[in-house]
Amino acid sequence: MTAKTVRLGLLGAAAGLGFGYTAVRAVQALRDQRTPYPLLPERDPQRYGRVRRALSLAAIGREAAGLAVTAFAIGDPLDRALQPLPRPLRAPAFALTVAAIDAVHGLAVEYVDGFVIERIYGNSDQTARAWFADRIKATALGAGVTAVLVALFDALVVRAPRSWPWLTIAATPPLLAVATVIVPTFVMPLFNRYEPVTGELETAIRALADRYGVGNASILRFDMSRQTKKANAFVTGVLGTERIALGDTLIDAFADDETLFVVAHELGHYVRRDPWLGIALSTGAVAVTILGANALLRRTTGRGLDGPAQGARLAFYAALLQFAFGPLANATSRGMEARADRFALAATGDYDAGIRAFRRLAEQNLAELEPPRWAELLFASHPSLASRIRALSR
């Protein structure tokens, strides 16, 4: 059996599994459109956690299969089909074609995995029409961003065929910093309505923020309930664009002292400069990924990045490296979250409110207090709620 035969067999298996999974989800999606699946009789966090872990593993498999098929099966024929296009348009056209195939292929999967399952577990009241509207907006926005970034990247590779990896790494920090400003200011309002928080809660949050140098930040409430019943809050923005955003699901369900503890946690990220640390760490990750993937590309093909098909293979190797380093990235994130918890406790001095907030998060978000250790290592960007409660109790 030759290496080519083995490769074709693996690609066939990957494509078959991917299309089989999609076909099953398509049948389920059509059934749900005719007769929606009913709510489960009880909200069981352990059962929900097992389902979400299985879906996470399935998503990894689907992504790997899709990237492999693009890189080693359809990439070269698609590249040849696009040869008549002007050189600056070939890479964006290639990327948009692959993205369109993925969007159509993954529609039923995302509908069932991301919409139906959330609804039957009682985590969302969103209608199918609203879900599709959000997905159309996200797909259109993603296509535009993809076209621009791929065009810029391709131009960089053409102009600097030897030094493009280092130039890409150098461009990463400013791009991430710009995204930190643009996304909360212009992108997120496309999906939710933001309005000022008022009353005693706003006064308390403003006083807390003022103690740590962000007293002029916008304090906003957004209609998170449009998509989910889960609670969340975040502090985002840099260089005068800071925003403290609270989901209505948080404000309406949490006591004010619990909400203040959550806000203090988010402020901890800002005060400890976690956004800038995140940009630095992401740049390091991009460096390792780009350099490693480029080395693998040259080793396996004997060529550098000389066209869209090679770009697809580069993306496949980059995804493998990202998956390999995922547990390290998650461990770093969990450390930052634990540090933000300690900051919140020091800022509020209210460990009781913190414990109540974490327990309420577990109940409202249908989260396991103590998920399996392997799942935490592989997938979790936050420590388990049980460990966070124990840390506050000490």
Question: Would you tell me the overall average pLDDT?
Answer: 91
Poorly predicted tracts of residues: none
Distance between the termini: 61 Å
Radius of gyration: 23 Å
Spatial strand order of the main sheet: 1-2-4-3
Number of strands: 4
- The proportion of residues forming helix, as a percent range, comes to over 70%
Class by SSE composition: mainly alpha
Number of domains: 2
Q: How many helices?
A: 13
- The global form is globular
Order of helices and strands: HHHHHEHEEEHHHHHHH
> Hey, roughly how much beta strand do the residues contain?
under 5%
Q: How is the biggest beta sheet arranged?
A: 4 strands, mixed
Report what the structure shows.
By secondary structure, this protein is mainly alpha-helical. The protein folds into two domains: 3-159, no CATH class; 191-275 and 332-393, Zincin-like, CATH 3.30.2010.10. Helix content is 74%, strand content 4%. The chain has a four-stranded mixed sheet, sandwiched between helices. β3 (233-236) and β4 (243-247) form a beta hairpin. α1 crosses α3 (87-120) and α2 (45-81) packs antiparallel against α10 (308-348). The chain starts with a helix and ends with a helix. This is Peptidase M48. Zn(2+) binds at residues 265, 269, 337. One of its GO terms (molecular function) is metalloendopeptidase activity.
